[in-house]
Design brief:
With about 150 residues, the chain is α+β, with helices and mostly antiparallel strands. It is built from 1 helix and 4 strands, in the order αββββ. About 20% of the residues lie in helices and about 15% in strands. One of its GO terms (molecular function) is protein disulfide isomerase activity.
């Protein structure tokens, strides 16, 4: 059994109008444009300001330090080395600059031998400036290591 379908679109009684259809040829622009309103409280404004300042500082500080490093590299380094006072050599710590080591054997006996650390020279090449007598810049100090 089939049911009849009723719909205003499927009607056989269609009526056509003889009136001409008007097409819109000109539209007037709206007199006002939509406006987006955002409510910013003081906490949000402060958070945005802190974010902008943080980005500026995060970019500014590395740029500043890079320019200072470049300027320092251009200047001649004439500062004397601190550990050796600009001489390029340090006194041996074992023989205290004498070149020989005295060992007390007891019973008023002493043995004097040549220092094995400086090989009897009494001094060693400064490990800070590598014998140049000029204090290395901070970043240049990484290249040298103390052998003692």
């Amino acid at each position: 059994m089939s049911l009849p379908l009723h719909s205003p679109f499927l009607s056989s009684n269609l009526k056509f109008s003889s009136k001409p259809i008007k097409l819109a040829t000109h539209r007037h622009p709206p007199t006002s444009f939509p406006c987006i309103k955002a409510d910013l409280d003081t906490n949000t404004a402060i958070a945005i300001a802190v974010g902008v300042v943080s980005v500026g500082v995060g970019i500014g500080i590395p740029v500043f330090y890079e320019s200072q490093i470049d300027n320092a590299a251009k200047r001649e380094n004439t500062q004397p080395c601190f550990p050796c006072d600009g001489s390029g050599a340090q006194k041996c710590r074992f023989c205290v600059g004498s070149g020989s080591v005295t060992v007390d054997l007891g019973g008023d006996e002493k043995e004097v031998s040549r220092c094995i650390n400086c090989d009897g020279a009494g001094s060693l090449t400064c490990t800070t400036c590598q014998g140049s007598g000029i204090q290395p810049r901070y970043l240049d100090r990484r290249e040298f290591k103390d052998d003692d």
